[in-house]
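Render this sequence as a predicted structure.
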Amino acid sequence: MLTPDQARDRAADIVARARAAGADAADAVFAADSSLDVSVRLGALEDVGRSESEELGLRVFVGQRSASVSTSDLSSDAVAALVERAVAMAREAPEDRWAGLAPADRLMHGAPPLLDLDDRGEAEPAELKALALEAEEAARAVAGVSNSEGAGASASRSVWALATSHGFAGAYAATAYGLSASVLAGDVASGMERDYWHHAARHRSHLESAAEIGRRAGERAVARLNPGRIASGPMPVVFDPRVGASLLGHLTGAIAGQAITRRTSFLLDALGTQVFAAGVSVHDDPHRPHGLRSRPFDGEGLPVSPVALVEAGMLETWLLDSGSARQLGLEPTGHAARGVGGGPGVSPSNLYMAAGAVPVETLIGDIVRGVYVTELIGQGVNPVTGDYSRGAAGFLIDNGAIAGPVAEFTVAGNLKDMFLQLTPASDLEFRYGTNVPTLRIDGMTVAGG
Protein backbone atom coordinates (compact mmCIF):
# COMPACT_ATOMS: atom_id res chain seq x y z
CA MET A 1 0.00 0.00 0.00
CA LEU A 2 1.14 3.54 -0.70
CA THR A 3 2.44 5.69 2.12
CA PRO A 4 0.48 8.81 3.09
CA ASP A 5 3.05 10.97 1.30
CA GLN A 6 2.67 8.94 -1.88
CA ALA A 7 -1.11 9.11 -1.64
CA ARG A 8 -0.95 12.87 -1.16
CA ASP A 9 1.24 13.17 -4.25
CA ARG A 10 -1.23 11.09 -6.28
CA ALA A 11 -4.07 13.40 -5.32
CA ALA A 12 -2.00 16.53 -6.03
CA ASP A 13 -0.96 15.16 -9.43
CA ILE A 14 -4.51 14.69 -10.68
CA VAL A 15 -5.42 18.18 -9.48
CA ALA A 16 -2.53 19.60 -11.50
CA ARG A 17 -3.69 17.62 -14.53
CA ALA A 18 -7.21 18.98 -14.16
CA ARG A 19 -5.96 22.55 -14.04
CA ALA A 20 -3.84 21.93 -17.14
CA ALA A 21 -6.91 20.53 -18.92
CA GLY A 22 -8.89 23.72 -18.38
CA ALA A 23 -10.48 23.47 -14.94
CA ASP A 24 -10.62 26.75 -13.03
CA ALA A 25 -10.36 24.84 -9.73
CA ALA A 26 -10.27 21.24 -8.60
CA ASP A 27 -9.86 18.93 -5.67
CA ALA A 28 -9.06 15.23 -5.55
CA VAL A 29 -9.30 12.37 -3.09
CA PHE A 30 -7.13 9.27 -3.08
CA ALA A 31 -8.20 6.34 -0.90
CA ALA A 32 -6.47 2.98 -0.43
CA ASP A 33 -7.55 0.14 1.82
CA SER A 34 -6.47 -3.38 2.64
CA SER A 35 -8.48 -5.59 4.96
CA LEU A 36 -8.59 -9.13 6.28
CA ASP A 37 -11.73 -10.72 7.75
CA VAL A 38 -12.11 -14.15 9.35
CA SER A 39 -15.38 -15.70 10.49
CA VAL A 40 -16.00 -18.91 12.41
CA ARG A 41 -19.10 -20.82 13.47
CA LEU A 42 -19.53 -23.71 15.89
CA GLY A 43 -15.81 -24.00 16.36
CA ALA A 44 -14.92 -24.25 12.69
CA LEU A 45 -13.55 -21.78 10.17
CA GLU A 46 -16.37 -20.46 8.00
CA ASP A 47 -14.77 -17.82 5.78
CA VAL A 48 -11.59 -15.86 5.17
CA GLY A 49 -11.67 -12.73 3.07
CA ARG A 50 -8.96 -10.35 1.99
CA SER A 51 -9.55 -7.20 -0.04
CA GLU A 52 -7.35 -4.44 -1.39
CA SER A 53 -8.50 -1.34 -3.20
CA GLU A 54 -7.19 1.96 -4.53
CA GLU A 55 -9.57 4.65 -5.78
CA LEU A 56 -9.24 8.17 -7.04
CA GLY A 57 -11.95 10.82 -7.08
CA LEU A 58 -11.79 14.19 -8.87
CA ARG A 59 -14.06 17.22 -8.64
CA VAL A 60 -13.53 20.05 -11.12
CA PHE A 61 -15.00 23.53 -11.45
CA VAL A 62 -15.44 25.55 -14.61
CA GLY A 63 -16.80 28.85 -13.41
CA GLN A 64 -19.73 27.93 -11.18
CA ARG A 65 -20.28 24.63 -12.94
CA SER A 66 -18.85 21.44 -11.50
CA ALA A 67 -18.60 17.71 -12.09
CA SER A 68 -17.27 14.76 -10.13
CA VAL A 69 -15.77 11.51 -11.41
CA SER A 70 -14.02 8.55 -9.83
CA THR A 71 -12.06 5.49 -10.88
CA SER A 72 -10.23 2.45 -9.58
CA ASP A 73 -8.19 2.23 -12.80
CA LEU A 74 -5.10 4.25 -11.94
CA SER A 75 -3.17 3.70 -15.15
CA SER A 76 -1.82 6.85 -16.78
CA ASP A 77 -4.16 6.57 -19.77
CA ALA A 78 -7.22 6.02 -17.59
CA VAL A 79 -6.39 8.99 -15.37
CA ALA A 80 -5.83 11.22 -18.42
CA ALA A 81 -9.19 10.18 -19.84
CA LEU A 82 -10.83 10.75 -16.46
CA VAL A 83 -9.53 14.32 -16.32
CA GLU A 84 -10.72 15.14 -19.83
CA ARG A 85 -14.14 13.66 -19.15
CA ALA A 86 -14.54 15.56 -15.88
CA VAL A 87 -13.73 18.94 -17.45
CA ALA A 88 -16.08 18.23 -20.38
CA MET A 89 -18.88 17.26 -17.97
CA ALA A 90 -18.37 20.39 -15.89
CA ARG A 91 -18.73 22.62 -18.95
CA GLU A 92 -22.18 21.11 -19.59
CA ALA A 93 -23.37 21.11 -15.98
CA PRO A 94 -25.87 23.67 -14.63
CA GLU A 95 -24.49 26.62 -12.69
CA ASP A 96 -24.52 26.47 -8.91
CA ARG A 97 -23.91 29.83 -7.28
CA TRP A 98 -22.91 28.16 -4.01
CA ALA A 99 -20.41 25.69 -5.47
CA GLY A 100 -16.67 26.01 -4.98
CA LEU A 101 -13.71 25.02 -2.89
CA ALA A 102 -13.40 25.96 0.76
CA PRO A 103 -12.14 29.49 1.54
CA ALA A 104 -8.39 29.61 0.87
CA ASP A 105 -7.70 31.59 4.04
CA ARG A 106 -9.29 28.85 6.15
CA LEU A 107 -7.20 25.94 4.86
CA MET A 108 -5.09 23.97 7.32
CA HIS A 109 -1.38 24.67 7.16
CA GLY A 110 1.48 23.41 9.26
CA ALA A 111 1.89 20.11 11.07
CA PRO A 112 -1.31 18.09 11.65
CA PRO A 113 -2.28 17.02 15.17
CA LEU A 114 -0.76 13.77 16.41
CA LEU A 115 -3.70 11.36 16.60
CA ASP A 116 -1.83 8.01 16.65
CA LEU A 117 -4.37 6.28 14.39
CA ASP A 118 -1.94 3.80 12.80
CA ASP A 119 -0.23 1.14 14.89
CA ARG A 120 1.58 -0.14 11.77
CA GLY A 121 0.70 -3.69 12.72
CA GLU A 122 -0.18 -6.56 10.45
CA ALA A 123 -2.49 -9.44 11.30
CA GLU A 124 -2.33 -12.97 9.97
CA PRO A 125 -5.41 -15.11 9.26
CA ALA A 126 -4.35 -17.59 11.95
CA GLU A 127 -4.28 -14.83 14.58
CA LEU A 128 -7.72 -13.55 13.67
CA LYS A 129 -9.13 -17.07 13.53
CA ALA A 130 -7.83 -17.73 17.05
CA LEU A 131 -9.48 -14.56 18.35
CA ALA A 132 -12.80 -15.37 16.71
CA LEU A 133 -12.75 -18.94 18.02
CA GLU A 134 -11.97 -17.73 21.53
CA ALA A 135 -14.84 -15.23 21.43
CA GLU A 136 -17.33 -17.83 20.19
CA GLU A 137 -16.15 -20.41 22.70
CA ALA A 138 -16.62 -17.93 25.55
CA ALA A 139 -20.11 -17.08 24.33
CA ARG A 140 -21.14 -20.73 23.95
CA ALA A 141 -19.83 -21.47 27.43
CA VAL A 142 -22.50 -19.22 28.98
CA ALA A 143 -25.23 -21.39 30.49
CA GLY A 144 -28.36 -21.19 28.36
CA VAL A 145 -26.63 -20.48 25.04
CA SER A 146 -27.81 -23.13 22.59
CA ASN A 147 -26.48 -22.15 19.18
CA SER A 148 -24.17 -19.71 17.45
CA GLU A 149 -24.48 -17.37 14.53
CA GLY A 150 -20.71 -17.13 14.57
CA ALA A 151 -17.89 -14.83 15.54
CA GLY A 152 -15.64 -12.68 13.45
CA ALA A 153 -12.34 -10.83 13.65
CA SER A 154 -10.97 -8.24 11.25
CA ALA A 155 -7.96 -6.04 10.64
CA SER A 156 -7.53 -3.27 8.12
CA ARG A 157 -5.30 -0.38 7.17
CA SER A 158 -6.34 2.60 5.08
CA VAL A 159 -4.72 5.70 3.64
CA TRP A 160 -6.72 8.79 2.76
CA ALA A 161 -5.43 11.87 0.94
CA LEU A 162 -6.91 15.17 -0.23
CA ALA A 163 -5.41 17.84 -2.47
CA THR A 164 -6.93 21.09 -3.74
CA SER A 165 -5.89 23.50 -6.46
CA HIS A 166 -5.73 26.45 -4.06
CA GLY A 167 -3.06 25.25 -1.68
CA PHE A 168 -3.94 22.22 0.41
CA ALA A 169 -2.46 18.72 0.29
CA GLY A 170 -2.61 16.28 3.17
CA ALA A 171 -2.92 12.58 3.95
CA TYR A 172 -3.05 10.18 6.86
CA ALA A 173 -3.14 6.45 7.56
CA ALA A 174 -5.25 4.51 10.03
CA THR A 175 -5.54 0.93 11.20
CA ALA A 176 -8.67 -0.71 12.56
CA TYR A 177 -9.33 -3.98 14.36
CA GLY A 178 -12.69 -5.52 15.14
CA LEU A 179 -14.04 -8.52 17.04
CA SER A 180 -17.64 -9.70 17.44
CA ALA A 181 -19.76 -12.67 18.49
CA SER A 182 -23.45 -13.43 18.00
CA VAL A 183 -25.24 -16.34 19.66
CA LEU A 184 -28.68 -17.80 20.31
CA ALA A 185 -30.17 -18.87 23.63
CA GLY A 186 -33.12 -21.14 24.35
CA ASP A 187 -34.74 -23.76 22.12
CA VAL A 188 -37.40 -24.05 19.47
CA ALA A 189 -40.05 -25.31 21.87
CA SER A 190 -39.79 -22.52 24.42
CA GLY A 191 -38.45 -19.79 22.14
CA MET A 192 -35.03 -18.60 21.07
CA GLU A 193 -33.40 -15.21 21.47
CA ARG A 194 -30.36 -13.71 19.80
CA ASP A 195 -27.88 -11.06 20.91
CA TYR A 196 -24.33 -9.99 20.19
CA TRP A 197 -21.38 -8.00 21.44
CA HIS A 198 -18.56 -6.33 19.54
CA HIS A 199 -15.64 -3.95 19.84
CA ALA A 200 -13.43 -2.00 17.46
CA ALA A 201 -10.16 -0.14 18.03
CA ARG A 202 -7.47 1.66 16.06
CA HIS A 203 -4.70 -0.26 17.86
CA ARG A 204 -4.68 -4.02 18.25
CA SER A 205 -3.53 -3.63 21.85
CA HIS A 206 -6.66 -1.63 22.69
CA LEU A 207 -9.10 -4.28 21.48
CA GLU A 208 -11.29 -5.75 24.19
CA SER A 209 -10.45 -9.37 25.02
CA ALA A 210 -12.11 -12.13 23.03
CA ALA A 211 -13.24 -13.80 26.26
CA GLU A 212 -15.00 -10.63 27.39
CA ILE A 213 -16.71 -10.09 24.04
CA GLY A 214 -17.95 -13.67 23.97
CA ARG A 215 -19.14 -13.59 27.56
CA ARG A 216 -21.10 -10.38 27.02
CA ALA A 217 -22.72 -11.74 23.87
CA GLY A 218 -23.78 -14.93 25.65
CA GLU A 219 -25.10 -13.20 28.76
CA ARG A 220 -27.11 -10.70 26.74
CA ALA A 221 -28.75 -13.47 24.70
CA VAL A 222 -29.65 -15.53 27.78
CA ALA A 223 -31.06 -12.48 29.57
CA ARG A 224 -33.61 -12.06 26.77
CA LEU A 225 -35.16 -15.51 27.14
CA ASN A 226 -38.91 -15.87 27.71
CA PRO A 227 -39.86 -12.24 27.09
CA GLY A 228 -43.21 -10.97 28.27
CA ARG A 229 -45.44 -8.24 26.89
CA ILE A 230 -45.97 -4.79 28.27
CA ALA A 231 -49.25 -2.90 28.56
CA SER A 232 -49.50 0.27 26.50
CA GLY A 233 -49.31 3.73 27.98
CA PRO A 234 -47.09 6.77 28.67
CA MET A 235 -44.01 5.95 30.74
CA PRO A 236 -40.30 6.64 31.13
CA VAL A 237 -38.08 4.92 28.58
CA VAL A 238 -34.42 4.22 29.41
CA PHE A 239 -32.05 3.62 26.49
CA ASP A 240 -29.05 1.33 26.83
CA PRO A 241 -25.91 3.16 25.58
CA ARG A 242 -25.58 0.77 22.64
CA VAL A 243 -28.90 1.95 21.19
CA GLY A 244 -29.11 5.41 22.76
CA ALA A 245 -26.31 6.62 20.49
CA SER A 246 -28.79 6.58 17.59
CA LEU A 247 -30.48 9.64 19.11
CA LEU A 248 -27.34 11.68 18.41
CA GLY A 249 -27.54 10.51 14.80
CA HIS A 250 -30.96 12.13 14.57
CA LEU A 251 -29.52 15.31 16.10
CA THR A 252 -26.61 15.59 13.65
CA GLY A 253 -28.87 14.84 10.70
CA ALA A 254 -31.13 17.68 11.78
CA ILE A 255 -28.30 20.22 12.13
CA ALA A 256 -26.48 19.27 8.92
CA GLY A 257 -26.11 22.19 6.55
CA GLN A 258 -27.93 20.50 3.68
CA ALA A 259 -30.97 19.84 5.88
CA ILE A 260 -31.05 23.49 6.93
CA THR A 261 -30.62 24.90 3.41
CA ARG A 262 -33.34 22.57 2.09
CA ARG A 263 -35.56 23.35 5.09
CA THR A 264 -36.03 19.66 5.83
CA SER A 265 -35.09 19.64 9.52
CA PHE A 266 -37.21 19.49 12.64
CA LEU A 267 -34.63 21.84 14.22
CA LEU A 268 -34.79 24.35 11.38
CA ASP A 269 -35.05 27.49 13.54
CA ALA A 270 -33.40 26.12 16.67
CA LEU A 271 -29.88 27.58 16.47
CA GLY A 272 -29.11 29.43 19.69
CA THR A 273 -32.14 28.01 21.49
CA GLN A 274 -32.61 25.33 24.11
CA VAL A 275 -33.10 21.94 22.45
CA PHE A 276 -32.10 19.66 25.35
CA ALA A 277 -32.53 19.90 29.09
CA ALA A 278 -30.09 22.28 30.75
CA GLY A 279 -27.90 19.44 32.02
CA VAL A 280 -27.15 18.02 28.58
CA SER A 281 -24.07 18.76 26.45
CA VAL A 282 -23.02 17.13 23.19
CA HIS A 283 -19.43 17.32 21.96
CA ASP A 284 -17.56 16.47 18.78
CA ASP A 285 -13.86 15.69 19.23
CA PRO A 286 -11.84 14.97 16.06
CA HIS A 287 -8.56 15.11 18.01
CA ARG A 288 -9.09 12.17 20.34
CA PRO A 289 -5.98 9.95 20.14
CA HIS A 290 -6.84 6.53 18.66
CA GLY A 291 -10.42 7.68 18.06
CA LEU A 292 -12.47 5.64 15.62
CA ARG A 293 -13.49 8.82 13.80
CA SER A 294 -10.53 11.06 14.54
CA ARG A 295 -9.11 13.04 11.63
CA PRO A 296 -6.48 15.77 11.23
CA PHE A 297 -8.49 17.81 8.70
CA ASP A 298 -11.93 17.76 7.15
CA GLY A 299 -13.06 16.74 3.68
CA GLU A 300 -12.23 20.15 2.21
CA GLY A 301 -8.83 20.66 3.84
CA LEU A 302 -10.00 22.80 6.74
CA PRO A 303 -8.56 22.34 10.23
CA VAL A 304 -10.76 20.56 12.74
CA SER A 305 -11.03 21.07 16.47
CA PRO A 306 -13.16 19.92 19.39
CA VAL A 307 -16.48 21.74 19.54
CA ALA A 308 -19.64 21.71 21.62
CA LEU A 309 -22.66 21.16 19.41
CA VAL A 310 -24.94 21.49 22.43
CA GLU A 311 -23.84 23.25 25.61
CA ALA A 312 -26.05 23.17 28.70
CA GLY A 313 -28.98 22.28 26.45
CA MET A 314 -28.41 25.12 23.95
CA LEU A 315 -27.79 24.37 20.26
CA GLU A 316 -24.50 26.12 19.47
CA THR A 317 -23.79 25.39 15.81
CA TRP A 318 -24.85 23.82 12.55
CA LEU A 319 -22.56 21.31 10.78
CA LEU A 320 -21.46 23.15 7.64
CA ASP A 321 -19.36 22.43 4.60
CA SER A 322 -18.36 25.44 2.51
CA GLY A 323 -21.28 25.13 0.07
CA SER A 324 -24.00 25.13 2.72
CA ALA A 325 -22.11 27.80 4.68
CA ARG A 326 -22.12 30.14 1.68
CA GLN A 327 -25.81 29.54 1.16
CA LEU A 328 -26.55 30.40 4.80
CA GLY A 329 -24.16 33.34 4.95
CA LEU A 330 -22.03 31.61 7.57
CA GLU A 331 -18.54 30.11 7.86
CA PRO A 332 -17.79 26.40 7.33
CA THR A 333 -17.38 24.53 10.59
CA GLY A 334 -14.77 21.93 9.62
CA HIS A 335 -17.28 19.10 9.37
CA ALA A 336 -17.05 18.44 5.63
CA ALA A 337 -16.80 14.73 4.82
CA ARG A 338 -15.82 13.22 1.49
CA GLY A 339 -16.08 9.90 -0.19
CA VAL A 340 -14.24 9.14 -3.40
CA GLY A 341 -17.28 9.96 -5.52
CA GLY A 342 -19.22 13.22 -5.45
CA GLY A 343 -18.77 16.39 -3.48
CA PRO A 344 -18.56 16.83 0.26
CA GLY A 345 -21.35 16.36 2.73
CA VAL A 346 -21.01 16.81 6.47
CA SER A 347 -20.33 14.41 9.30
CA PRO A 348 -19.27 14.66 12.94
CA SER A 349 -16.15 12.87 14.15
CA ASN A 350 -15.98 11.33 17.64
CA LEU A 351 -19.42 12.39 18.83
CA TYR A 352 -20.51 11.99 22.43
CA MET A 353 -22.98 13.19 25.02
CA ALA A 354 -21.30 14.24 28.24
CA ALA A 355 -21.95 12.08 31.28
CA GLY A 356 -24.62 13.20 33.68
CA ALA A 357 -24.39 13.45 37.44
CA VAL A 358 -26.30 10.36 38.58
CA PRO A 359 -25.51 6.63 38.37
CA VAL A 360 -27.82 4.34 36.44
CA GLU A 361 -29.34 2.95 39.64
CA THR A 362 -30.41 6.43 40.67
CA LEU A 363 -31.62 7.28 37.17
CA ILE A 364 -34.12 4.43 37.21
CA GLY A 365 -34.67 4.27 40.96
CA ASP A 366 -37.88 6.31 41.00
CA ILE A 367 -39.47 4.71 37.91
CA VAL A 368 -42.53 2.82 39.07
CA ARG A 369 -43.21 1.38 35.62
CA GLY A 370 -41.09 1.82 32.52
CA VAL A 371 -38.93 0.04 29.96
CA TYR A 372 -35.19 -0.35 29.49
CA VAL A 373 -34.55 -0.58 25.73
CA THR A 374 -31.66 -2.72 24.49
CA GLU A 375 -32.71 -3.10 20.84
CA LEU A 376 -34.37 -0.79 18.34
CA ILE A 377 -36.02 -2.07 15.17
CA GLY A 378 -37.03 -0.24 12.00
CA GLN A 379 -36.49 3.30 10.80
CA GLY A 380 -39.67 5.10 11.86
CA VAL A 381 -38.21 8.59 12.23
CA ASN A 382 -39.39 11.63 10.25
CA PRO A 383 -36.45 14.06 9.94
CA VAL A 384 -38.74 16.95 8.92
CA THR A 385 -41.27 16.75 11.78
CA GLY A 386 -39.20 14.87 14.37
CA ASP A 387 -41.90 12.23 14.81
CA TYR A 388 -40.30 9.11 16.28
CA SER A 389 -41.73 5.57 16.39
CA ARG A 390 -39.57 2.45 16.52
CA GLY A 391 -40.02 -1.17 17.41
CA ALA A 392 -38.07 -2.19 20.48
CA ALA A 393 -37.09 -4.96 22.87
CA GLY A 394 -35.58 -4.81 26.31
CA PHE A 395 -36.57 -5.15 29.94
CA LEU A 396 -39.38 -4.02 32.19
CA ILE A 397 -38.53 -1.49 34.88
CA ASP A 398 -40.65 -2.29 37.92
CA ASN A 399 -40.52 -0.15 41.06
CA GLY A 400 -37.04 1.16 40.34
CA ALA A 401 -35.39 -2.11 39.30
CA ILE A 402 -34.69 -3.93 36.04
CA ALA A 403 -37.15 -6.84 35.86
CA GLY A 404 -37.85 -9.49 33.22
CA PRO A 405 -37.37 -9.18 29.45
CA VAL A 406 -40.10 -7.71 27.26
CA ALA A 407 -40.40 -7.70 23.49
CA GLU A 408 -42.59 -6.66 20.57
CA PHE A 409 -43.40 -3.15 21.70
CA THR A 410 -43.06 0.30 20.16
CA VAL A 411 -41.64 3.46 21.69
CA ALA A 412 -42.91 6.72 20.24
CA GLY A 413 -42.70 10.46 20.72
CA ASN A 414 -41.37 13.54 18.99
CA LEU A 415 -37.64 14.19 19.01
CA LYS A 416 -38.09 17.81 20.08
CA ASP A 417 -39.95 16.70 23.19
CA MET A 418 -37.69 13.71 23.73
CA PHE A 419 -34.55 15.84 23.72
CA LEU A 420 -36.03 18.26 26.25
CA GLN A 421 -37.06 15.39 28.54
CA LEU A 422 -33.73 13.54 28.30
CA THR A 423 -31.53 12.86 31.34
CA PRO A 424 -28.08 11.24 30.98
CA ALA A 425 -26.59 8.90 33.57
CA SER A 426 -22.96 9.02 34.71
CA ASP A 427 -21.80 5.83 32.93
CA LEU A 428 -20.31 7.25 29.71
CA GLU A 429 -17.75 4.95 28.05
CA PHE A 430 -15.87 5.62 24.81
CA ARG A 431 -16.41 2.37 22.88
CA TYR A 432 -17.77 3.46 19.51
CA GLY A 433 -17.64 6.34 17.06
CA THR A 434 -20.69 7.84 18.77
CA ASN A 435 -21.02 7.40 22.52
CA VAL A 436 -23.68 8.23 25.08
CA PRO A 437 -24.31 7.21 28.67
CA THR A 438 -27.53 5.45 29.66
CA LEU A 439 -30.36 7.84 28.77
CA ARG A 440 -33.76 8.35 30.39
CA ILE A 441 -36.60 10.05 28.53
CA ASP A 442 -39.83 10.71 30.41
CA GLY A 443 -43.28 10.88 28.86
CA MET A 444 -42.80 8.60 25.86
CA THR A 445 -45.64 6.46 24.55
CA VAL A 446 -45.11 2.72 24.74
CA ALA A 447 -47.39 0.48 22.70
CA GLY A 448 -47.30 -3.15 23.80
CA GLY A 449 -47.90 -6.20 21.68
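Summary. The chain has a mean pLDDT of 96. The longest strand covers residues 145-164.
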